[in-house]
Amino acid sequence: MSAEFSGGPEDSALSELLDRSMPADAEAVATVVDAISETLAQLEVPEQKRFEIALAVQEALANAVVHGCGNDRSKQVRCQLKSDAQGRIVIIVTDPGPGFSPDLQSDPKQGESLYDDHGRGVYLIRQLMDEVQFERSGSEIRMWKY
Amino acid sequence: MGQAVDGLRQAMQEAVGSGDTRIVLNLAEVPMIDSSGIGLLVRFLASTKQLGGNIKLVQPNKFAIQTLRLVGVLNLFEVFDNDDAAVDSFA
Description:
The complex is a heterodimer. Chain A is an alpha+beta fold. Chain A has helices at about 25-40, 45-70, 120-130; strands spanning about 15-25, 75-85, 90-95, 130-135, 140-145.
């Protein structure tokens, strides 16, 4: 199901459905995820696809809050929901942090990693979404669902 | 993440801290499990098993099942349709 990014439309070809900025706070994550889910429901996106997008957004926002902002509520995380002419959906999550190297993420299904209490977020996003791209040294993630 | 995971962490810590290592966790009202929740579950699964106990899951919805399977931890847990069956499995 997952694949690395092979090139989506330019931003100018995308229609904006939602644009939210939130404080880097765990409780704010749920509010934005709910808003994304409601928007997708209004667009009559099927339940299974809504769930997969919602969980991917939850993971991306959690990473942004914890790693990108260090749980500092004075910092802001931006979440944009857009679609292209073919109805493909992209969610862009941006944080003000220094970014990270997604290629260094280990496989959480291997050996002792199974019992680790962290390290599954990016793996889950890649499994749930169709294309995933990291920009700005990893401080921005673009997640596509077809 | 957030209050839900914090609340579960506190409850599990209290249970394990008081010697209750045989735990039944009813997930019927849990719409979604994220990576922080999964991390918490597997961490406490490991610690309860080390103490001779276990964590049994009851009524996880299809999305929770799918998520646990995606990250390869579903088969670490026994899953039951109701609380009684999960409790009886400890006998």
